[in-house]
Every structure is written in C-alpha cells, then in structure tokens.
Q: What sequence folds into this?
C-alpha cells in the first residue's frame, strides 16, 4: 500500500507528547492557510499542549486549569461517537472471523485494519455531531439536535459476543479505557518518536512465520461482488443498494484499468520487416 488514509505517527510509550502534537498542529495550520481560513482552537492544559507555538491561521485558546470536562466540546459526544464506531467495526471483524477461527489467537487484527477503522470512525463524526458538542458545552443557547444512533448500532453487535460469560453494553465498552492516560508528564526525546509514511515490519507485530493472505485479483473481486449481488437479490434485499454501489465502484476501477492498458491498432497487425513483403 502506497498511501495511508491517516498520518502515521507513533511513540514507543504509546502516549501523546508535545513533539507529536506540535508537528500535527503545524501541518493543520498549513492546511487551514491553503484554504484561506482562520480558526479558533480550544485546548485543555494537557502537558502535550504547548502554549508556545507560532501559528499563522490558528488561534489557540486554553481552558482554565482544572476545568471540568463538562465545558469541553469533544467530551460532549465527539470522542464517544468515534470510539463507538471504531469498536463496532472491531466487534464485526471478530464476528466475521469467528466461523473460521479455532481460538482467539486465530482472529488476527493488524495495524492496517485499525487504520481503516479509524478512518471510517472519524467520518462518522459528522458536522451535526460536532455542532452538538458545542451546544452541549453551552457555547450557545440553541437546542441540541437528537443524538446519533452509534451506541444502538454497537449494542446490536455486542449482543452476539460475551465477555466472561456476560454481554457488555455499548456504554461500558466505549468507556472501558476512560481512565487510561493519553499523555505523559514529561517530554519524550525526539529519538523515541517515529513518524513514517507506511507500516514497517516491526510495526505490524506479525511473526516471520505468519502466513499473509493474498488479496484476490480485480477480476476475482468482480466475480465475488456478482455473487454478493445474487445473495442480496435472493435472500437479503436490504443489502441490495450497498452491493450495487460496491459493484459500480469496482467496475469503474476495472474498466479504467483496462482502458489504461488498451491496445493500439498496431497491436492487431503482425510486424513485417522491411524487404520481406513479396512483390505483387
């Protein structure tokens, strides 16, 4: 894979720190500048949030020390929506692999899986949800739009799994790591920071003996989707529109690839060397 849908940046301690945050903020500032916009960004007083950052198009405003999370917009639904959608994909992945797995170790989850789940989960945090977080934090007096159904969707898949013999609720599952620190109290040295464009062998966590499943060819994928079309038509019509969309996108890619390899008129004639043609 040549490009990830996220900026891949990691810290050996698994914490956010000022080095990573400052780099991200500078990149974000460049994006906002290219869009010819200026924004106001609210931050808490976490150690990673340095106040001494020079920015062109972003103004930083810090909440007072020891401020309750009640007035911080992201804590009013954005983070929980992201977590709920990420963990729904995680549970669906486990369920999808359960039929062929003999043990929990057989349900492999790669860093690349997590990256794609992160991308999808963030897309689920809509503009409406973000506006609601500011309303919930009393930034204005507008009525709050009804909350999204991400917790209901997570509950619907969690009921198919038991943890220690019990079914965990979506609320408990999303909040399970609320007390895990996301930053440290000191600044890591730069030598501990990794900022990479792809995923190295060290980062994947796979053993050398791990068998990597090969992806199907494009033509094989087209055939798979055709069979999904038969399934949706005959047994699960609620899937039909989604399968049609997938089929359409896949066919577009297939046709574009074939067009790029399209033969010219010269390919239909044999090359004849000069002087080898018989006189008439």
A:
């Amino acid at each position: 894979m040549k490009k990830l849908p996220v900026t891949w940046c990691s810290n050996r301690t698994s914490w956010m720190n000022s080095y990573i945050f400052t780099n991200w903020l500078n990149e974000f500032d460049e994006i906002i500048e290219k869009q010819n916009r200026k924004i106001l960004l609210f931050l808490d007083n976490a150690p990673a949030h340095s106040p001494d950052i020079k920015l062109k198009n972003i103004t930083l405003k810090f909440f007072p020390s020891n401020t309750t999370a009640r007035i911080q917009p992201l804590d009013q639904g954005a983070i929980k929506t992201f977590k709920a959608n990420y963990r729904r994909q995680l549970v669906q992945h486990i369920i999808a692999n359960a039929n062929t797995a003999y043990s929990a170790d057989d349900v492999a989850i790669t860093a690349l899986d997590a990256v794609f789940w992160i991308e999808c989960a963030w897309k689920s945090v809509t503009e409406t949800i973000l506006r609601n977080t500011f309303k919930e934090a009393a930034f204005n007096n507008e009525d709050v739009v009804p909350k999204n159904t991400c917790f209901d969707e997570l509950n619907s898949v969690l009921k198919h799994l038991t943890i220690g013999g019990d079914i965990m609720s979506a609320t408990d599952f999303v909040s399970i790591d609320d007390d895990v620190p996301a930053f440290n109290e000191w600044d890591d040295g730069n030598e501990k920071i990794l900022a990479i464009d792809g995923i190295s062998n060290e980062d994947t966590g796979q053993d050398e003996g791990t068998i990597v499943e090969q992806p199907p060819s494009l033509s094989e994928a087209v055939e798979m989707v055709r069979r999904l079309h038969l399934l949706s038509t005959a047994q699960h019509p609620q899937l039909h529109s989604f399968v049609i969309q997938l089929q359409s996108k896949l066919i577009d890619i297939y046709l574009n690839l074939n067009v790029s390899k399209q033969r010219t008129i010269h390919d239909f004639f044999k090359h004849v060397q000069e002087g080898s043609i018989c006189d008439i």
The chain has three domains: 1-67+184-207, 73-174, 218-261.
